Amino acid sequence: MAHITVGEIPSALLREKTLAITTFFSYGISLMISFVNPFMQNAGYGNLQGRIGFVYGSVSFLAFIYVYFFLPELKGLSLEATDILFERKTPTHKFQEEGKKIMQNDDDYVEVEKLVFREDSKTGLDANK
């Protein structure tokens, strides 16, 4: 799920860096879990055995709450509209409503070009090259 989310949510300028950071932490956490999990289950250490499901179930429940309240629904929205919504700091529960308004109004797409130019001026990159 992390790779799906990272492919759509970050702005075009940050997508590559965000994907690299997410991949790094995803593999790091997977590696940590693969080493810690046997110790949590074995009788000599954690002795959780089958009850380890409660640990992972609790983490999954917390992840569900996070996704429900903090990740916006991007279905049907263009990447440009998503960039505009994040720039305007739109609450996640209003993304669909505001995003459809942005996609119907062509003037808002000019705003994306301004955002890209402003980002380029920060990094010193020339947008015309």
From TrEMBL:
The UniProt keyword set, sorted, is: Membrane, Transmembrane, Transmembrane helix
Transmembrane stretches, by residue range?
Answer: 20-40, 52-71
GO terms of molecular function: carbohydrate:proton symporter activity
Entry keyword annotation includes Transmembrane helix:
yes
Superkingdom of this entry's organism?
Eukaryota
- Name the major location: membrane
Q: Which Gene3D superfamilies match?
A: MFS general substrate transporter like domains
Q: Which GO terms describe its cellular component?
A: membrane
**Membrane topology of this protein:** Multi-pass membrane protein
Does the keyword Transmembrane feature in the UniProt annotation?
Answer: yes
Localization, per the record, is: Membrane
Annotated protein name in UniProt: Major facilitator superfamily (MFS) profile domain-containing protein
Originating species: Cerrena zonata
